[in-house]
């Protein structure tokens, strides 16, 4: 499993259905967090495509897909930048530079 896949799996496990407005079923879940199907639906990508990314079989997801996943996972700016950097490394691209914070 590559670093991008591992990051997505961990983040998916840290956000629950109630955190994103999904109903909670009558029985407790076997594992914490969102199901792949739920995250894929929230991000607007197919379950198969998301599964390939999370399993490390898709190594070059587009920025629009990564942005949608970041929104669905409720990532902050730093986590979103980290996600993009991981995707760059997995795809063999030079990691993008983050813009410098504006000076007062």
UniProtKB/TrEMBL annotation:
Endpoints of the signal sequence: none
Pfam families: HTH_31
GO molecular function: DNA binding
Domain HTH cro/C1-type residue range list: 29-80
CDD domains, alphabetized: HTH_XRE (cd00093)
PANTHER family: BLL4672 PROTEIN, BLL4672 PROTEIN-RELATED
Record-given protein name: XRE family transcriptional regulator
Natural source organism: Actinomadura bangladeshensis
């Amino acid at each position: 499993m590559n670093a991008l896949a591992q990051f997505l799996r961990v983040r998916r496990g840290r956000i629950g259905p109630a955190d994103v407005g999904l109903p909670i079923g009558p029985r407790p879940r076997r594992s914490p967090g969102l199901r792949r199907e739920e995250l894929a639906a929230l991000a607007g990508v197919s379950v198969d495509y998301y599964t390939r990314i999370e399993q490390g079989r898709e190594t070059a997801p587009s920025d629009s897909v990564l942005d949608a996943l970041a929104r669905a996972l409720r990532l902050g700016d730093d986590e979103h930048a980290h996600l993009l950097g991981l995707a760059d490394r997995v795809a063999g691209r030079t990691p993008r530079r983050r813009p410098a914070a504006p000076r007062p």
